[in-house]
Amino acid sequence: MPLRLLVTSDTHVPQRARALPPQLLDAVPHADVVVHAGDWTDLATLELLRTRARRLLAVHGNNDGPELRARLPEVAQAALDGVRLGVVHETGPARGRERRCAERFPDLDVLVFGHSHIPWDTTTETGLRLLNPGSPTDRRRQPACTYLTAEITGGRLAEVVLHRLPPRHRAAPARAHRPNRPRT
User: Fold this and answer.
1) 20 to 30 Å CA-CA from 58: which of 34, 37, 134, 141?
2) Nearest 10 degrees: CA dihedral of 85, 56, 36, 76?
């Protein structure tokens, strides 16, 4: 039976959204492992995922304060059904990322990272798979907010799917009432 992963990062609650998107929360109970690559920005979101996830593998990010840094490592690693998976928030610029990550994490099969809010899925020359789920709350220059799901089957990562979330409906800003004035 495959091991199901839900992979997210850069949730930025409550700065970028009031809460995690319902589609992401609905997917949590279906995952065997939830992976979060940092930039939570609030403790409540960490506690929410800890209570709903069967297993949580997570790190802190550059926007996370002292409370989150005290509870989460900078780098996390786990062996998941024969796949050596690591999680880190930042990997530096896109240029040279594959080489840098392969050198820094030679004993991993998969490295999940965040920070850029840009989905990423590549494999280095050494065979290290690099995954960035984007952000479920802040699409930046991307067409949609995103997260990933994946399966581990037979000791290898398979079925990596990028999920695009529907646009959030934001409340319209309040407008000052201006009475109609007759034109003169």
Assistant:
1) 141
2) -40
Phi, psi of 46 (to 5 degrees): -60, -50
Phi first, then psi: give them for residue 147, nearest 5 degrees.
-155, 170
* pLDDT at residue 164, as a whole number: 97
∠ Cα 15 16 20 (to 5°): 105
Of 160, 124, 136, the closest CA to residue 2 belongs to: 160
H or E element at residue 120: strand 120-123
Question: Which residue blocks in the chain are alpha helix, DSSP H?
Answer: 22-27, 43-52, 66-71, 97-104
> Residues with Cβ < 8 Å from 22, sequence gap 6 or more?
none
| pLDDT tens digits, one per residue of 72-115 | 999 999 999 999 999 999 999 999 999 999 999 999 999 999 99
Mean pLDDT (whole number) for 32-58: 97
Look at residue 184 in the predicted model and tell me its pLDDT.
44
Task: Burial-class residue 44 by CB neighbours within 10 Å (0-12, 13-18, 19+).
Answer: exposed
Nearest to 33 by CA among 71, 74, 77: 77
Q: How many angstroms separate the CA atoms of 152 and 159, rounded?
A: 8
Q: What is the per-residue DSSP string for 141-161?
A: TSSS-EEEEEEEETTEEEEEE
